[in-house]
Amino acid sequence: MHNITEIGMEYDVLRENVKIAHANHQLLTENNIRSVDIMGSIGSGKTSLIVRIAEKLTAKGIRVGAIAGDVTGDDDFKRMVSANISATNCNTGHECHLDANMVKRSLKKMDLRSIDVLLIENVGNLVCPADFPLGTDLRMVVISTTEGDDMVRKHPDIFLHSDIAVINKTDIAEYVDVDISVIKNDYSKLTGGALKMMECSVKKDKGVDEIISALKLW
Ligand code: MG
Ligand code: ZN
Q1: Which of 26, 76, 171, 188 is the most exposed place for a label (fewest CB within 10 A)?
Q2: Which residues form the domain of 178?
Q3: What is the average pLDDT value for the chain, to the nearest integer?
């Protein structure tokens, strides 16, 4: 339970975050960089999707940069570097989400003149990243069929804070006994019918082009 002092502190933290997020957005816009915050649970396929998107954009001459947000380690960062992405590793230490200040520090380490698109991989978590906008143009949440059919009902906030929602690993839905239409209906209901969840299988390269178009990255 929060007492009143803690709620006050939390409010200040969120307000400070929004201020820095605005500055990040201004910096990215000034450098003509289109940016996306990619959120989702551990194992939903965020890194694989980022790598696949980057391959497709690179093939069209679009220069991709990325920030790999993780509590610790550099596994995702290394995968990005192997895919020729100009990546920066951002370890949060104890935090289970990225915040605008961490992104600000990461941006300082990057050559912003050498990229057209910035993909930020948030820490694997469907709860608090929602509260911390980073200053990107768009926010996207990625879930996978392996997480079950109740993710939208369990974590409505992150879906409401995202511009685009993606269900990945559709190719194995039947093997994990998940009916994708249940998830899509929940999402449609949550967003008042205004938004449709996008389907993809990064592994089979299905639906990725549509995601890139929806994010207006090419
Ligand atoms: Mg990852
Ligand atoms: Zn957190």
Answers
A1: 26
A2: 2-214
A3: 95
